[in-house]
Structures are given as structure tokens and as C-alpha cells.
Design goal:
Blueprint: E1 8-9, H1 12-24, E2 28-29, H2 30-40, E3 45-46, H3 49-61, E4 65-71, E5 77-83, H4 85-109
Parallel strand pairs: 1-3
Antiparallel strand pairs: 2-5, 4-5
Helix pairs in contact: 1-3, 1-4
Length: about 120
């Protein structure tokens, strides 16, 4: 498990992608989304509530997720967010963009053998 100092705050677009991916597995309330992202990143990625809820509202506005009322595992009223068909398509688009970006950054950070590192 990572210490608090080793955790990484997420960029806005990255958080949107991670929320969409998390909801691909099924509907979830806000706290469950946060915990899933943190657990799946082995506690490296930190999602603050001040970032989560604006992201959820942004994704609803774009039509990528929807929500309904439900009861959480601790018997509290909660909003459950779910991926829409439009969101599922956007997840594919965003994943492709992420793969391209990550590949480009990796090529810069770790040039192919034979290239000089200044």
C-alpha cells in the first residue's frame, strides 16, 4: 500500500476516463467509485470528493452517464451512477486517446536503444 505522499492526484480528463471505466463494470455510488479507483490503482491514485462530484456532473451533462436513487451497502440513500450507451462509445474513444498519449510519453521518457539521452 502506498503512503499518502506517494499518491497521485488526477488530471481532469484522466478522472473522467477512470470514472467511465469503473462504471463499465456496473452502477455505483460516488464513494464506491472513489474506492474502486483507489483499490484498482493499488492506492496510488487519489480521488478527492471536490474533484469527483464536478466530474460526475460533467459526465451527466455530456450524456455519458446517468443516475438513479438507491440504497448503499450501509443502508443509506445514495445516487447510483451508470454508464449510458453514449458513454460506452466515448469510453472507447477516450481509451484510444489515452493509449496514444501514454505511448508518446513512454517514447520520450524511454527512447529506443541506440538513441542518445542528453
Amino acid at each position: 500500500m502506498s503512503t499518502k505522499d506517494e499518491r497521485v492526484e488526477l488530471l481532469q480528463g484522466t478522472l473522467d476516463l477512470l470514472i467511465l471505466q469503473t462504471l463499465r463494470r456496473g452502477a455505483a455510488h460516488g464513494h464506491a467509485i472513489v474506492k474502486a479507483i483507489e483499490q484498482n490503482s493499488e492506492d496510488v491514485l487519489l480521488v478527492e470528493q471536490g474533484s469527483l462530484y464536478p466530474a460526475l456532473h460533467r459526465l451527466i451533462k455530456r450524456g455519458w452517464i446517468s443516475f438513479g436513487e438507491g440504497t448503499s451497502e450501509n443502508n443509506r440513500k445514495a445516487k447510483f451512477y451508470r454508464l449510458t450507451a453514449k458513454g460506452r462509445k466515448q469510453l472507447e474513444v477516450e481509451t484510444t486517446k489515452w493509449d496514444k498519449l501514454a505511448g508518446a510519453i513512454a517514447r520520450i521518457l524511454r527512447p529506443a536503444t541506440g538513441e542518445s539521452r542528453s
